[in-house]
């Protein structure tokens, strides 16, 4: 190509070899893409200072954004939604607190303060704040490693508050440091597998309550739990078992109704509360306790007591507590944020993940000061809130007010709630989380995603929740690194009667130009794949030359299409220089087509452009092919003459 | 676009919507790309079984490939090269064994068996096998954590053999499992920083020998070593210091000569041996020992004794030993393979990294059975071998034979070698490894590479070798993950009088088509970046709409150029569906241009194509723009009429 530059005049457009952007400009742009991809401060530009302050307050404390325009019409919707979610919050609070092995009243407290905090700082309109099942169980299994909740319930409870405090700090810090990026690494497949596995072990756990067993295992894996049931089978009580089956059938029936007629969502939303009331009445009038039907027991009247003085940072427990706080914090963020944003998408809105993290963090922080444990935006409750027609975060305030009234006046009434009713509520909720259809979908579309999902599912069911999760996230990262270290390359051919070049495997009617090999590279070229790309290019050429037997078809030009190469590092440039040297040794010329701006800057800064010459760069595949064909004809004079003879 | 399909007839080429490739075909192709990117078994295809066996043996035992054609002419070159590297092997063996705190004779043993093994199994023609300085020091610092080499030298030595054994197993396993991919994650920047940092601490270590200090620290970091020198400054002996300075000056002068006149490379290659001989003569005739010049001391005559019975897998030491084995194994692979392949590139050849790993592994495995410690292909020795004109791995056999002769007859002569001469040799070798020019180059080209390099340099110098290395590799991985989670996107504009679309920032003369936003995506779209890509697309549209004030310029079509998107996973497809829904809510149509084969397969399998309709896919940007413009005109009848009025 070096000898044919005189031929280039008829091309209008050439590569832009102008000076690279400055370092600070690039750094700023990279930092912005990494930490502020949604450009949250755009709205402050071109505003007066006074407006900026107001907008800033509204940005950090979203309630000031919507409360000035709030009116009675909106409140009617929010009141109804708030009432509905409160009716769900009471049974869920009691049951999930049981899962976490803490007093049931804590579950009720957790639906008073956190929803208030979220209503002030949260930006989602549909999120309903409450406790979540999977994390409740995870808290139980992790903290009971260091303190037995039956032997020292007070210390255990204090450690749960401490874990919640750590969750709060962790979540707020992630949000403030704009590290929402971390949550992106929990893939959809991991969450599907985790939900399914958790649902399985939670359902099995509930068999204790359904069968009315007195003895059980503290482990969560499938094998231990089934073993414990078999070992204690003589304790199975027919009356609780019957009650349990009836309750589950009732709850599942209401779900079926909702599925058939989405307008009846309130039937299934109210069903857990109805179950609790009927169960309580049954236990009260039949003196169920005497027949072996275990009940919740005494519930103190009154709102949340202060718990800040109980936070316990004793180094003996700190490692387990911090681990609990961070893992549950991470999981509850993943659940809450993905749910919040999927409901926002339905209403054509968007949510700022990092801001949500700060709101979640503050909610758990204040929660840990006021006798609450971990809260998030659980899927079921948020869906009910959405379907009940909530308009703003006011529904959370309504929930908090009704919960406060319940705590002040009605709490003692719930003492007769039979444990079997709670087990039935949890089991029924969990059955909906086993998303086998999604697993089948994953299997059909992407086998590696399916593997990630199954690793999490089986890891959670047969080993433990944290191991399953870590293995699955690890597989996801491994996949990300494989993507990076083995980027796809393909051979391009020309589509007939056009100047378009496409993958020859994908478009079998495209044809290769004799003597020219066009390769499309993808992904950044850098240390993790530069050696691979070098070897892959050489293999393409070997494969090519073993096919073409006629001498005139020998590859003389390799065109590398850089359209998909988003960046390059120094090792990558070294690799290109080596590749070029190896190709030159075989009499093959290498040219680069359409390098992007980042790549071009690196190539200029490292003097790669000077080394290989500007004539090896092309803006456009068609130009490059034209140039190469010209030089091919020049280097094969006989062929050229023959062709002229025919003309 | 859905309404304008009648307009599509005049396009010759459309997207290929044919059935996806089968799962097994895809899996096979992916596994091949990941583990066998160089397609090593291609040569066995289309061969008779008998030829296959021969080719197979030649593949796994490369000596059978070249020995049948070996002749005396080649041997003349290899003999000279072998002699030259032996003269380097003797002083290096003694000095580096001192670094590893093992008897000097072990260093000599290590240049007998391993070169023989490498000559049989290795595929590089230029590699000269020998011990390496950085790993010797690393062995010392890591194993002395569990056993003090001065208190129990025998146990310490056995643990060094055991570490070498583990290195061998580890390297061979990596090669057999085709995990050469792991070495790719040690970037050029990390190696530069590691070499520089190691050179600094090795030079400082040598000040003990140069100053003739009796007491010193066992730590390696800059602060401890300088502190130890200051604390023991009363022990500094002028005679050894003088000798040291003279030796270093001599060695550096020979290097300077080589730099001025590359033909004089043998002067600098011989210089260490000359230093040892002159130093020995000086110590012998002046009775240096009495003047405080420490000497090497007694060296046993005879070749390597068997050491397999000394391998010690006591669990008390195993963790430290395994760590040493794996880290040094990894590092020595990285050094050896990168050097082997860079010399191969100079001669227009290629090296199979995985095969080299097996050869290295076998060499260390047999080494650990025969009183050798860790060996690799050190840069200095390999360069000398190359410059001395070696033709095949026979030079390593020559080295082994001369080393055997030395061990059998000459070893005792080296007892008078002064330690200061060894220190001078190490120091002089290390000074060449501080590649500040490369660091400046990194700073200029890529700031993140520079950061990775500096992290390793300062980590190694001020903390410890393994911490520095791990931090630097961790930064490299972080960068890889950032690449993956924040892929570059850009807005494309049309170049005048052409059908070519390019980045508008890079080509400021390109123009945007009113009402149409063309975005180029890069890298795979999947769980780690699908949310980012969604937000980034929405931000492009927001930015766009805040610029265009006139109503007729409002964006109605977003074209996503998928040329650079090498693959997609289920989360990525979900993200695209969400993006499409959000855009539709704003009255914007989304189309996908030129999806690659992997992406198309996933989109078909997940029914994405059915959901969005085939009319939203285009093969080519220019077709897509034409179609969009047509639908724009149809949707703006007034505008259309006006235009016609002008025509």
Automatic annotation (TrEMBL), chains A, B:
Chain ranges passing through the membrane: 74-94, 100-120, 127-143, 155-179, 191-216, 236-257, 264-285, 320-345, 357-376, 396-414, 419-436, 448-478
CDD domains: STAS_SulP_like_sulfate_transporter (cd07042)
Statement: the UniProt record of this protein carries the keyword Membrane: yes
Family: Belongs to the SLC26A/SulP transporter (TC 2.A.53) family.
Principal subcellular localisation of the protein: membrane
Entry keyword set: Membrane, Transmembrane, Transmembrane helix, Transport
Annotated protein name in UniProt: Sulfate transporter 3 1
GO cellular component, one term: membrane
InterPro entries in the record: S04_transporter_CS, SLC26A/SulP_dom, SLC26A/SulP_fam, STAS_dom, STAS_dom_sf
